[in-house]
Amino acid sequence: MQDEQNPTNPDIKHRRIRSFVVRGGRMTEGQQKAYDANWEVYGLEVADGRISYEEVFGRTSDVVLEVGFGMGASLVEMAKNAPEKDFIGIEVHPPGVAKLMMLAAEAGINNIRVYCHDAIEVMADCLPQAQASTFQLFFPDPWHKKKHNKRRIVQPLFAQQVANVLKIGGVFHMATDWEPYAEHMMEVMEVQENYENAAGKGNYHPRPEARPLTKFEQRGERLGHGVWDLMYTKISG
């Protein structure tokens, strides 16, 4: 992750904080075929610039954004379980994007779209401002070593970037299985003046039923590992 810079200045896009670390994005032949077959239906191009949710989905609805959806199973399940909502996933890992689109096609759902690009740039250049109802960040890289903590995506600047795309009353929902990162998330979010902790100041939120329990999380529960959900409501611009 690079040093934090002003994310709205087009002259320094190349110096923006990054939302990811690339870890081998080469796709198998099968993944490439799935990607190519489904991109026209589910893919959104950064080059097209600022989108309209109504035009993308053909209706007015609550829009849920998720950054870093991994292989997409959880996000597709959420979209399938909430047909009245529309979902946009942002993921830089092409195999994960291919898998999500394949799962969406198999499920026959049309209320999901995807960007295969850095989330920070998508948020700044492509997403409508102050319109999304929910922003999800589940199990981001915790960067365990103290010297790497500054690389964690949840920082004051990122909290503001999320606020930019959320409407008033919209929710920033985070989840992590690393308690020190949960503490870091809360430390960052509790001092943000335009957010309010939905569970009450200093409290973690019970896992909402809308967030599917992943196999990874189920295994962690059996081993006695905890998962911490944090939900913050945008209360001002």
UniProtKB/TrEMBL annotation:
Substrate binds at residues 145, 177, 214-217. Its EC number is 2.1.1.33. This is tRNA (guanine-N(7)-)-methyltransferase. It catalyses: guanosine(46) in tRNA + S-adenosyl-L-methionine = N(7)-methylguanosine(46) in tRNA + S-adenosyl-L-homocysteine. GO terms for cellular component: tRNA methyltransferase complex. Residues 147-152 are annotated as: Interaction with RNA. Pathway: tRNA modification; N(7)-methylguanine-tRNA biosynthesis. The keyword DNA repair does not apply. Belongs to the class I-like SAM-binding methyltransferase superfamily. TrmB family. PANTHER family: 3-DEOXY-D-MANNO-OCTULOSONIC-ACID TRANSFERASE/TRNA GUANINE-N 7 - -METHYLTRANSFERASE, PENTACOTRIPEPTIDE-REPEAT REGION OF PRORP DOMAIN-CONTAINING PROTEIN. It comes from Marinomonas aquimarina. GO terms for molecular function: tRNA (guanine(46)-N7)-methyltransferase activity. Keywords: Methyltransferase, S-adenosyl-L-methionine, Transferase, tRNA processing. CDD domains: AdoMet_MTases. The lineage of its organism: Bacteria, Pseudomonadati, Pseudomonadota, Gammaproteobacteria, Oceanospirillales. S-adenosyl-L-methionine binds at residues 66, 91, 118, 141. InterPro entries: SAM-dependent_MTases_sf, tRNA_(Gua-N-7)_MeTrfase_Trmb, tRNA_methyltr_TrmB_bact. NCBIfam families: tRNA (guanosine(46)-N7)-methyltransferase TrmB. Catalyzes the formation of N(7)-methylguanine at position 46 (m7G46) in tRNA.
